[in-house]
Model the fold of this input.
Amino acid sequence: MASPDLTSAEPVGGDAPQQVTYETLDDGRIARIWLNRPEAQNAQSRTLLVQLDEAFGLAEADDAVRVVILAGRGKNFSAGHDLGSEEALLERKPGPAQHPTFRSHGATAPAIAERTYLQEWHYFFENTRRWRDLRKITIAQVQGNAISAGLMLIWACDLIVAADDAKFSDVVGVRMGMPGVEYYAHPWEFGPRKAKELLLTGDSIDADEAHRLGMVSKIFPRADLENKTLEFARRIAERPTMAALLIKDSVNAASDAMGFTEALRHGFHIHELGHAHWAAHNENRYPVGLPPDVPDWRTLGAPKPARRDEP
Done:
């Protein structure tokens, strides 16, 4: 049974909207973190990302918690970074609604490339790496679309469980002229050639293909996703905590020995080179591709499925 009190991940400043919620189940053995912006397809504002980091920290600090589930409310797991909602625009601008992190961590640097580099290092890259190494076993529970930065959240988790309607894509190459999201795990999760295809086309893969590639562990009917993910988490939670942690660390260390962490760092710096290129190219110094160099992302709709029999 879920505990009767849901503990919100308190946002920085204390009065920010609750974009992430936190609950414990099974006498505290399982923590479940919810992305709580269903009306915005769980797009990742700065408020959401900071509250998510705090929620992961809350689970990590709780010695009773053995497994953490990361889930999203609503139709889609996450539509990626929030690029244009009123909330996201307000939290960037000076004023009472500005998020504190837009006054620190490089946000006030005068140079666009330096400002972008430092902000994205802290809030799109280093935080994701920190979640990957959380001292708990983590399970991503994915339904609907996981687009671009939505992939970063699930790739930071140890295990991924998907609904049968789940779709996975990174559209920033096609829609913004960038090489992929900041946490560049694509070749490891998709394989090198599939990563190139998906980044160059912006197409999506479904849950079955993600399972075939080894990215997804389990696929459940959408109606059963929450309950089945909890059953799976309970099975993992039966393992001794030290054994689970050693398994996690040994597998992560093997990936690191094969170059995973160094490849992530290199991918992040290539990403920042992309920002610097567009900031120099665009008259308004905006650090991503704009029409006519790329299509208008606001009119493109959902990514089309990758099909082996279609160009």
Observations:
- Strands lie at 7-8, 20-25, 30-35, 67-72, 137-142, 145-147, 159-163, 167-169, 205-206, 218-220.
- Residues 60 and 135 are 6 Å apart (CA to CA).
